[in-house]
Amino acid sequence: MTRFDADDSRERQKLFAEAITAHRTRGSAFTTVEADHDPDLDGEDSPAPWVQFADKTFNLDVVGDELDRLKDVVDDFPAFRIDQLESPDEAEATNVRITARSDANHLAAFADRVFREVYERDEDYRAWVTAV
Known about the structure:
This protein is α+β, with helices and mostly antiparallel strands. It has one domain (14-35, 47-131): Alpha-Beta Plaits, CATH 3.30.70. It has helices at residues 9-26, 39-42, 66-75, 104-118, and strands at 5-6, 31-35, 50-54, 57-62, 80-86, 94-100, 127-131. Strands 1-7-2-3-4-6-5 form a seven-stranded antiparallel beta sheet, covered by helices on one side. Strand 3 and strand 4 (57-62) form a beta hairpin.
């Protein structure tokens, strides 16, 4: 990988697919993508949303209505399914694990939709690959 951020849908999906491919090729533990922090959407003290992928599984945290929106996105990807929801008492978010058996391009399309539809990012949001 030679670049680590993108801010339009086509370039983000290409970036995400490259990160997933690099993760698989290197046999790394996971790859993580983050959206730029938006205080209006995320709150001042909350972290930017992130999506992690490892071993055919997406991992992400959602709060409130985000879980319902995530279920709607997963429904559009027949090869994906929510396998685990964890909501520890001390945490505000629900950790979600989604099994996703697909090629890098479909995985990338899913990740981009998660940021746009679940985390309500604008079409031109900037995403960063923060770990491969």
